[in-house]
Each structure stands twice: as C-alpha cells, then as structure tokens.
Amino acid sequence: MSATVSTPEVLWAQRSSATEAAKNFIYLTISVPDCPPSALKLDLKPTGLSFQGHSDSLKRSYAVELEFFAEIDEKESKIHHTPKSVELVLRKKELKEEFWPRLLKDSKKVHFLKTDFDKWVDEDEQDEAPEDDMANMGGMGGMPGMGDMSSMMGGAGGDFGGIDFSKLGGAGMEGLGEDAEDDDDDEEMPGLDGEDEEEGEAPAKIQEIK
Predict the structure, then answer these.
(1) Pick the CATH number of 5-168 from 2.60.40.790, 1.10.1200.10, 3.40.50.620, 3.30.70.20
(2) By three-state DSSP, how is residue 116 classified?
(3) 196-206: per-residue pLDDT in tens?
(4) How far out from the chain centre does Cα 44 lie?
C-alpha cells in the first residue's frame, strides 16, 4: 500500500417519497477503478460511511469519510462493486417528499463531491423519471441488502462496521464497467447556476429545452 492516500471522487443523486420507502433513497458512487474486493473495506452506518480501497492499476490507495445530512437505513441499503467504482443505493430513513438540500451534514463544500447528472432528476419530475435497475435490484444477480450481508461479514464488529468485500465475492461484475461514471464527464458539463452542482449541493432546477 502506498504511503499517499487520496480522496476518491464521489458522485450522488437522490429520489424522495413521503409514502413509499423504496422510492426514498440516495444514489452514491465512489469512483475507484480496479479495486479488488480483497483491498476494499466499507463501514456503513445510519449517520455516514467510511471507505478504504486500493487501485491496482493506479497503484494508489483511497480513503473517504462521509457524514450524511440525515440518517439512512443501512439494512435496506444496497452495495454493488464494479470494475470502476463502488455503487450504493442508500435508503433514507425518514419518509419525506422534499429532497435533502445536500448530501453531507456539514454545509462546507468539498472538492471531491459532485452531482451525478446521469441519475439526477428534479424534485417535481420524479414520477416521470425511468425506473433504475440498481434501485430496484433488477438485473443485479440477486445482490444482497445490508441485512443479508451481516451473515457474510465474518468477524467484523458492530453496526455493520468494517465490511470486507473479500467475503462478498465478485458476482454480477461482468459487463457493468460500461455503466460506471467517467471521471472526466463532470468537467465537460456546461456550468449551470453557480458551482454548487460540482461540490455536492442539490442543483437548481434545470430548465428543459423544448
């Protein structure tokens, strides 16, 4: 493991619902390519997560800690490991129609956190948005939820701490690399209103061009 530890790029988007828990979640992507399960650890808790991983191709170690704006239900959240990233669907604990104003509890902007424009929809356009396979777990090869993972964590201690992906295997990874977020995509996006979109703030409504 190299002496220098970098912060990975983190992309996020969200959906909300006051009545349906399955439609009340956060999309989160931690972009670390070629990180084998044996070199990846994720500690997911109701208030946040910590991630550590090592990229074989980049010969670099990564780490990040996030404290969420509000609590999530880790038992109903989903995790998927691809060749380019770690993808999560985090179930918001509180059923609420309004979007979270930001991902993190601290309003201070951080350079590594960006809006995932491929998954983002405006709050008032959620009903028209297409259903996402990852959110519904369709086509994911029966990927377990956090509750099911507890039986595969071996000696990991307390509150889903220290999930070791070497225990989870690599099922369902083939063919998913094409869907992973390209690191340069956000840099090529035209600017919207301010720079909030690049640093984790919920973006202002995007006007549709007719």
Answers:
(1) 2.60.40.790
(2) coil
(3) 545 566 665 54
(4) 11
Identify the residue whose tokens are 């086509």: 139
Q: How far apart, in Å, are the Cα atoms of 47 and each of 15, 71, 91, 95?
A: 18, 5, 12, 16
Output b/e per residue, 55-78; b: 16+ Cβ within 10 A.
beeeebbbebebebbeebbbebbb
pTM recorded for the entire structure: 0.65
Of the listed ranges 4-8, 26-30, 152-156, the least confidently predicted one is: 152-156
| Residue of 111, 72, 87 lying closest to 27 (CA atoms) | 87
Given the structure tokens 């959906």, which residue do they identify?
15
